[in-house]
Amino acid sequence: MKETYLGVEVSPLTYEGIVNEIENRMTRHEQSTIIAVNPEKVIVANRDPQVKTLINESTFQIPDGVGVLLASKLKGGKITSRVTGVDMMGRLLDFAALKGHSVYFYGAKEEVVTKAIAEIQKERPLLLIAGYTNGYEKDEAALVQRINDSGAKILFVALGSPKQELWIKRNLMNLPNVLVFQGVGGSFDVFSG
Ligand code: UDP
Questions:
Q1: pLDDT at residue 1 greater than cutoff 90
Q2: Cβ neighbours of residue 25 under 8 Å, at least 6 residues apart?
Q3: Ligand 1 centre distance from Cα of residue 160 (Å)
Q4: Is 160 within the bounds of a domain?
Q5: ipTM of the assembly?
Q6: Cα separation values, 127 from 43, 92, 103, 106, 117, Å
Q7: How high is the pLDDT of residue 105?
Q8: CB of residue 38 inside a 6 A radius of ligand 1
Q9: Domain ranges, residue 188
Q10: CATH number of domain containing 98
Q11: Percent of the chain at pLDDT exceeding 70
């Protein structure tokens, strides 16, 4: 059961819970989208119905930010710990490496995304990298084609919010074999060190 803050839904799941559910959904060939929720986004969503819909339509709204955790505690909710976007991405990378699901990285500057991939691969030598594209690519149709051709199962989109979530929403149907989409904001910058 999701918890609701000013009309914005949040999943009360842990990293393990989300990865387990994603694995089940992948078996059924169901796409999953992951969006990070923090108090700033809840406030923006409260003013902007489009942003609210964008969040609530996602499969998993992770409680990134201590404010959501505190709000849940105050109302006796089930959220017991933060689930940050960057750590969620790390867990998904571990899962992908373990299960042989290939991953695609889209976003950030060329030197940032390539460095992030090098660091990620160093930690997870078995990870299958389907490909990457920096976040300044203008030809969206060509990019979608490239991701489809890559055979990627998991896609990380790092364009900042809400740009990355809007990109995912626009292209979800055009990427039928990508089963997991996470909007990861500045996470490539974090992984690149
Ligand atoms: N970015 C991009 N293309 C754009 C705009 C931004 O690739 O058109 C990248 C930018 O290089 C940075 C990330 O998106 O790596 C934005 O991170 P930020 O921390 O601003 O996002 P937030 O987590 O605050 O949403």
A1: no
A2: 31, 32, 59, 179
A3: 4
A4: yes
A5: 0.94
A6: 37, 11, 8, 16, 10
A7: 98
A8: no
A9: 18-62+84-192
A10: 3.40.50
A11: 100
Per-residue pLDDT tens digits for 119-165? 999 999 999 999 999 999 989 999 999 999 999 999 999 999 999 99
Q: What is the average per-residue pLDDT within 103-111?
A: 98
Judge if the beta carbon of residue 135 lies within 6 A of ligand 1.
yes
CA angle at residue 78 from 63 to 85, to 5 degrees?
15
pLDDT classification of 80: cutoffs 50, 70, 90: confident
Task: Report CA(139)–ligand 1 centroid distance (Å).
Answer: 18
**Ligand 1 touching residue 186 (CB < 6 A):** yes
Say how far apart CA 152 and CA 130 lie, in whole Å.
5
Ligand 1, atom nearest to 184 Cα: 23
Cα 185 from Cα 134, distance rounded (Å): 13
- Tell me the average pLDDT across 45-65: 95
Q: Does residue 124 belong to any structural domain of this protein?
A: yes
**HSE toward the beta carbon, residue 133, CA cutoff 13 A:** 19
Cα 185 to ligand 1 centre (Å): 5
Ligand 1 contact, 107 CB (< 6 A)? yes
Question: Is 5 a domain residue?
Answer: no
Q: Is residue 7, in this structure, part of any structural domain at all? A: no
DSSP-derived pairing of the beta strands 103-107 and 60-63? unpaired
Number of domains in the chain: 1
